[in-house]
Design a protein that fits this description.
- The two termini are 15 Å apart.
- The protein has a four-stranded mixed sheet, with no helix packed on it.
- By secondary structure, it is an all-beta fold.
- The protein is globular.
- It has strands spanning 9-16, 40-41, 52-56, 59-67.
């Protein structure tokens, strides 16, 4: 029987990236979105193994993977 390891992802959730006043950051491309040095730009639509930022419907979102 195979166990689950830390690299297995069973999906992901998207959360809006908001400003201090609660408004959502707007974008044209994922590169427009603010991120820390540890967070990359999402490069595919597949669930990532680490958090990444994306531009969805002109909103900046952070994609958070859900571990198995």
């Amino acid at each position: 029987m195979l166990g689950c390891n830390d690299l297995e992802v069973c999906g992901s959730t998207a959360q809006d990236i908001t400003r201090d006043d609660g408004s959502v950051y707007r974008c044209v491309t994922s590169e427009d979105c603010p991120r820390t040095s540890r967070v990359n730009v999402c490069v595919t639509d597949v669930s990532p193994i680490a958090e990444c930022v994306s531009c969805a419907d002109s909103r900046c979102v952070i994609i958070v993977p859900e571990k198995c």
